[in-house]
Design goal:
Layout lengths: L3 H37 E3 H8 L3 H10 L5 E3 L2 E5 H17 L1
Antiparallel strand pairs: 1-3, 2-3
Length: 97
């Protein structure tokens, strides 16, 4: 008959392996989400450079509701799709004139 403590130890090793695998998968998924955030959002400086505007103009646009920032912790970021909409609208205005 096997020692009950050896059986418990085997079970704990199996559980530890399962938890380790779950943690690895979670870390991989988290890394994917972080990289996609970087692709979908821009910092204030990136937006100013892209649109060739000053930080004050960007702030005013947020106050007027033209381009709303998103705050995550202490970081302020802007959605790329909203910036693309603004660029398309401005190009359309120049075409109509």
């Amino acid at each position: 008959m096997e020692n009950p403590f050896e059986e418990i130890n085997k079970n704990l090793i199996g559980i530890n392996k399962i938890l380790s695998d779950i943690l690895d998968e979670f870390k991989k998924e988290k890394d994917c989400n972080i990289s996609s955030e970087k692709e979908d959002f821009l910092s204030r400086n990136e937006v100013c450079n892209l649109l060739q505007i000053t930080p004050k103009t960007l702030y005013n646009w947020g106050a007027k509701g033209i381009l709303m920032p998103t705050k995550i912790g202490s970081r302020i970021i802007y959605n790329k799709s909203e910036i693309n909409e603004i660029l398309l609208k401005s190009k359309f205005k120049y075409i109509q004139k």
